[in-house]
Amino acid sequence: MPAYVIFIKNKTTNQDELNTYGQKAAGARGDHKITPLAFYGPLEVLEGEPAEGVVLLQFADKAAAHAWYDSPEYQEAKQHRLKGADYRVILAEGLG
Question: Which of 13, 57, 60, 86 is deepest in the core (most CB within 10 A)?
């Protein structure tokens, strides 16, 4: 069943670190099959805290999502995301 990784950017704290993250995260894609469904486009918060941006990535399944997220390449990129902004990251399984 498909799986989705949802990035919710709450607040930017260091734009230079986010720029570095963007470059490294793009390189971390490698051979992982990722389908971006939403990528920092316009958003409207209907409930809860405000968000600066949202990314929604689709993977074939939970194992594929973990293979990408846990990869050394993405983990290296992630360090810059953590220095550059406050995020929530959620892995959700889809319906079969």
Answer: 57
